[in-house]
Task: inverse folding
């Protein structure tokens, strides 16, 4: 798969007209903290061939892992994502999306195809995952829209590509826009300097540095030296001027002023999510404060009315993405337990009393024992079958509490209900070993629940079977040696 070689973004920076006053160009923490946290649904579409086959199929675990990455990156500044489900599209044409053949933005655009064929959720972000892609690894449909495409390899193996494309959806440009022409962003960050243009050039974010495309900087250096495109392409070293360990910029690049001003680039600038830089340890690449503000402002502007449509409530984050809550204990096995999406830090704490099904969101009429954590889940946990809501507990999601600056305990589930007991049997193993030499005594519902049942048994080895009205048969083996 070509996409394995590099994680290449194909989203064009282009121009996207904005409503007057929609963007403040601020880059301070107090401005960022003024935005109200928000939740978006996210739906995934695996693209198979016409026969429903994929050599790299989308799985639920892959989709959950992707949502976890999004939440871990974006929760820090009040943007949350709810896993909304997944489905499949069978299409030979888009099984491999070829950018050069016009299947990304051209006459055969996948985004036009899914709109024309109603293969999108209008109330969610839509992420399309073909087997592979040619000429790119990931792309957003357009800045300020909610649809993306990313090949299966990249959505699993890239730590930042999904966050990068989501950043484009929220109206972020690449940090190096127009770096190699006369309309470049100038290095100075002194707003009194006549050459200051950080709010108008490059990505128009004032706290990202003026910088080159680190991946292609050497290529353009060779071109400027007179090499042909073919020669430069064969000789160029991607990320030549980035130290792969420290992420320090070692080049001698400068801006387009006359005389030019040398770049003032630090490792934190290199590791910006919207730059092109080498792979880094997971979650070590970041957005700046100004970029975070820009994203929130884009959500409020909502140029295409897609962000509002994709928004959901915080209550949904306290709902399982699959499974159900048993009405009785014991319950049939296996039971599809209520499963919760990864990427959050959960504490399920002891609660009371008598909620056969979870309390409604916002219900304050239950008590909790904050010091008794029934189950703790780390946001980095990858064993997704362990993230479920246990009985006798309520839910704390720490990232939500941090976003709102207050502790919220929700959805107490405290079920002591047992199904009707129909009867049962007492099986005595006559040889006092587990074999087929047994004596079976049937018991009705009163007899099998009699507190004196076991005290009245003779010494020996028994299996006591209780039959419940929900189809559960509960078995208990005892060895009685005295009263």
Result:
């Amino acid at each position: 798969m070509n996409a394995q070689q590099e994680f290449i973004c194909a989203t064009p920076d282009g121009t996207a007209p904005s409503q007057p006053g929609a963007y403040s160009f601020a880059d301070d923490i107090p401005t960022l903290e003024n935005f109200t946290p928000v939740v978006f649904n996210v739906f995934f579409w695996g693209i198979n061939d016409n026969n429903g086959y994929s050599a790299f199929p989308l799985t639920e675990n892959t989709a959950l892992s992707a949502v976890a990455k999004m939440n871990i990156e974006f929760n820090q500044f009040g943007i949350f994502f709810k896993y909304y489900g997944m489905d499949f599209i069978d299409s030979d044409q888009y099984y491999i999306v070829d950018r050069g053949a016009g299947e990304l933005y051209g006459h055969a655009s996948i985004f036009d195809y899914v709109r024309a064929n109603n293969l999108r959720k209008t109330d969610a972000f839509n992420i399309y995952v073909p087997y592979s892609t040619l000429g790119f690894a990931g792309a957003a449909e357009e800045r300020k829209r909610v649809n993306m495409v990313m090949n299966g390899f990249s959505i699993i193996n890239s730590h930042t590509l999904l966050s990068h494309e989501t950043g484009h959806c929220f109206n972020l440009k690449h940090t190096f826009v127009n770096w190699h022409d006369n309309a470049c962003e100038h290095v100075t960050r002194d707003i009194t300097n006549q050459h200051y243009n950080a709010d108008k050039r490059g990505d128009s974010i004032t706290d990202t540095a003026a910088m080159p495309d680190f991946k292609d900087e050497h290529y353009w250096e060779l071109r400027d030296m007179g090499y042909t495109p073919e020669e430069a392409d064969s000789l160029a070293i991607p990320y030549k001027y980035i130290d792969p360990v420290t992420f320090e910029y070692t080049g001698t690049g400068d801006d387009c002023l006359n005389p030019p001003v040398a770049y003032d680039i630090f490792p934190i600038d290199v590791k910006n999510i919207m730059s092109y830089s080498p792979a880094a340890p997971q979650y070590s690449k970041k957005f700046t404060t100004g970029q975070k503000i820009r994203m929130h402002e884009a959500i409020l502007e909502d140029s295409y009315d897609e962000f509002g449509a994709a928004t959901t409530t915080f209550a949904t984050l306290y709902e399982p993405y699959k499974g159900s809550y048993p009405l009785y204990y014991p319950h049939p096995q296996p039971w599809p337990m209520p499963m919760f999406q990864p990427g959050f830090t959960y504490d399920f704490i002891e609660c009371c009393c008598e909620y056969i099904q979870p309390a409604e969101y916002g219900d304050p009429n239950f008590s909790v024992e904050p010091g008794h954590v029934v189950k703790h889940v780390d946001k980095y946990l990858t064993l997704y079958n362990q993230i479920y809501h246990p009985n006798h507990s309520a839910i704390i999601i720490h990232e939500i509490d941090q976003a709102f600056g207050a502790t919220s305990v929700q959805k107490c589930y405290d079920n002591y209900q047992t199904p009707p007991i129909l009867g049962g049997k007492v099986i005595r193993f006559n040889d006092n070993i587990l074999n087929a030499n047994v004596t079976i005594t049937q018991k009705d519902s009163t007899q099998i629940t009699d507190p004196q049942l076991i005290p009245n048994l003779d010494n020996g080895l028994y299996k006591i079977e209780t039959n419940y009205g929900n189809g559960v048969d509960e078995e208990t083996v005892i060895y009685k040696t005295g009263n």
